[in-house]
Amino acid sequence: MSAPKKTPRSIVPLSREDWVKAATNLIAQEGIQAVAVEPLALALGVTKGSFYWHFHNRDELIHAALEAWEQDQSADVVTRYAGIEDPRRRLRVLLFAAFEDVENGRFFAALGVSSEDPRVQPYLWRATERRLAFGVEAFKALGLSETEARQRALLAYAAYAGYFQLLRATPEALEAVTDLSGYVRRLADALVPAKAARPS
Amino acid sequence: MSAPKKTPRSIVPLSREDWVKAATNLIAQEGIQAVAVEPLALALGVTKGSFYWHFHNRDELIHAALEAWEQDQSADVVTRYAGIEDPRRRLRVLLFAAFEDVENGRFFAALGVSSEDPRVQPYLWRATERRLAFGVEAFKALGLSETEARQRALLAYAAYAGYFQLLRATPEALEAVTDLSGYVRRLADALVPAKAARPS
DNA sequence: CTGTTTCAATACGCAGGCGTATGGAAGCCA
DNA sequence: TGGCTTCCATACGCCTGCGTATTGAAACAG
After folding, report:
1. In a domain? residue A82
2. Confidence of residue A185 (pLDDT cuts 50, 70, 90)
3. Could you say which residues from 139 to 168 on chain B have a Cβ atom under 8 Å away from some Cβ of chain A?
């Protein structure tokens, strides 16, 4: 066999998606400002020349990465948990799922890091709005008033955002909580009113 | 009195503290990376020449700002609230005070933004450790087990960190909560076990 | 009035990152 | 074989920010 017809090109060419994926990882780890063309090219083993063939400029890459994330998002939360009937269960499942999706949590925290950046603001705002609205609905479905539902949803969301910010900034601080599910259970117990009175 | 003896110089010279204060404000608003010598000099109406007379380099300014913040910190929380006898009240007062000190909350959130920076990490870590430890003690004083106290303290701290992160990143999201004290009260109610059963 | 100290302006060199321009090599197509 | 397309390298100019060196000017001290 005259060599199994290697890859089309002797050395595989980079696709646009390769760049986006690399950028996404970089954002999750070091934030937007770390997405620099030249270092990124270096890491991918090519030069700027390649980048500027695939993209018009740096902004285009950043937007592509954020866009990809947002797509995943909408495909995720809202659609998956709206199906659960019992609102109490829905809330708990939602909470657990949110905290367990560490990948997503890290990316979200990274966006918070770059929240000043006008490019990320719209994405951050939309994600927050969508999640918060979903939480409010869930709490209202439990019979809570608008005000109460808002407060609780915000509390839950702040606890979520704060958790992943801490995970990012001072992961040592979380070592105390080896049992994440216990932590989340406590959050759920604290926020979701029990059917029957539920002692701590 | 023959003119209140104007300022020593016709145009007031900048002090080292002026630079530190300006840097502190900048950090609170835009994070560490915004503390750049030349733009800062421009904002203060002078040039780099002034800066490098007062400071050895950029790092020295940053450390000075962080140091000043840390000093305020230790002078604050620990000393002021350890005096309150009733642990239940102590916790609530602490929570309210923490959320009401918006200035400090913003600065803390800004540090979270720059959490990758090796210069801020130690400060962030010490602040987190101190506050968390204080919270754990407070909860333990209520008779909770070590594990429970840790979980609740972390929960409270995450809610705190998350709140100010949201305030920073998507302040619009918090407009729903016009009543901050109601929000904090809910947090306190959720986390501090009531003496007698305490309906929402 | 002279010298010293304190604070600041100016000018310079350097590095990193963006974007452009241009050339080139490998595959595909005829 | 020649040409077109795809992907990338190289080289360049630009801007921003750091840090240094040197000069300068106002206050103070004698």
Report:
1. yes
2. very high
3. 147-148, 150-152, 154-155, 157-163, 165-166, 168
